[in-house]
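Preliminary data (for renewal application), adenosine-5'-diphosphate complex.
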Amino acid sequence: MERSHHPRTTDVLTKLPGFASLFAIAAGLIVILGWSLGLPELTRMIPGFAPAPLRAGATMVLCGVALWLVRDADAGTFRRFLSASLAVPVAAVSLIAIGEPITGSTIDWARLGSRVGGVPGLTETLPVNSAWGYLLTAVAVWTLCFRTLSRSRAPQWIGLAIFLTGFFALVGRAFGVSAFYSPMPGLPMSLWTMVTLQLLGVGVVFARRWFGFSALLMDKGPGGKLARRLLPPAIAMPFVVGWTALIFERAGVYGTEVGSSFFAVTIVLAFTWMVMRAARAVQRADAERLAVLGREQHEREVAELALVTAEKASLAKSDFLAVMSHELRTPLTAIMGYEELLADGITGPINPQQAQQLSRIKASAQHLLGLIDEILTFSRIEAGRETIRLEIADVNRIIEDSANLVAPLADEKKLGFVVHLLDPPRFMRTDAVKVRQMIVNLLTNAVKFTETGTVSVRAATSGQNVEIAVHDTGIGIAEENLDKVFDPFWQVEQKATRRAGGTGLGLTVTRRLARLLGGDVSVQSSMGEGTTFTITIPGLANPTPPAVPTTPT
Ligand code: ADP
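Predicted structure:
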């Protein structure tokens, strides 16, 4: 995860719902304590402000606990149920308070207040605007309790409304507009409620941070950075400036006109400064983005260059291998030619010991030739120079030819050798020489890595594909090596490999040839039990070729 440049700001925003809940609980408890101990100052928060009624205290505690329970999106069913239940009395108390001025009080709050030690007749009535804020909080809690609703924008809008209810009252109080904070004369919203509602509103907004404006504020990109930087001063500045202007005006330092001008000038300057700061931040972010883009472009170019170089190097290597093996092949064929001349006794009679030595020379030379051929094929494929010669071929014929080449090796090791042919025979359109080369490779390996038991080759058809499975009861291949056996020059470090020699290219060549023909080779094996390599190649011809119209001659 990428760290933002403002980890602390976003961390604080994440913790806001929890903090708001705890604040509401504490505020509510202080208010209740104030009433029950008969200390009205506690219910005012700051002397001079209206006291919070007892009901507000209880409501704050309930709201705090309810929000605390569902402040995380992963709150369980029980927590959500409990939270929703706690919001019910909040809504009820608020609705009654809103209804009271209209229907007339039906409950003797004064008596209730005095019973818990309250100051009777003072402020037992919950102001309508406070009640409205708490009612909204109950509704917000409910939206947070329902999974689908909590993922909508509803909580955010309701949270905003809660915040504004508190903020509006605070502004009214600061500017002395009594209608704003005391819509019913003599019943002002308490400072506790103003602050609690603002915090609860913000808490609700940030309880689900993945959509709407909370997502924007949490955003790690330039948008979020900008919003986090601009929003607090945008809210606080007019408030503070307006208030300061008003205080000086009230103190008689200057008149209304001067106050308004002072307010206008300060706000203009402040906002100009903020806009410039924002613009600079955007400019910096954009420059950063361009730098990153430039770097990526550069990295891409470097990677492309490396690829081209690697391809060139690979081609050079393949060319080198091809030339080398070709150059080795020529003298080797000469050696084999002269060996034959000597063995046939054309250049003079040879004794049995010489004959045996000549046969060893022949075997070694043939082995060497096989290796060179393998390298040659590999480098041709690597260089993309291997060509395909398609023909219609009898599948069984290909398999028999390959089997005949390897059967003597199996005999030598006293292994069973089984060939299952297609019945009825089928034809395929493919490069028969390459298919034979693949089968011989697999059969040679099977014999090489099997000490007792049987080696078999079985042909089958599947759709338009021919499947040729070469099975052995040999040493097997460890699970973790199953993929590696197809890697060039890879060999299991084991006695059989060392004894048998080989290049580690056989399977590489086999797989590449199979892919060249549009098919593939797969392997299944279990250690100590045996191995099955399966070649799958497309190109199975129709069993009954369409009759060719014969033209009379
Ligand atoms: P080479 O046979 O020349 O060593 P290959 O590419 O044909 O190279 O095989 C790579 C390795 O895969 C072999 O060295 C061997 O360890 C393993 N392998 C191939 N075929 C078998 C088999 N039938 N049973 C067990 N191991 C095998």
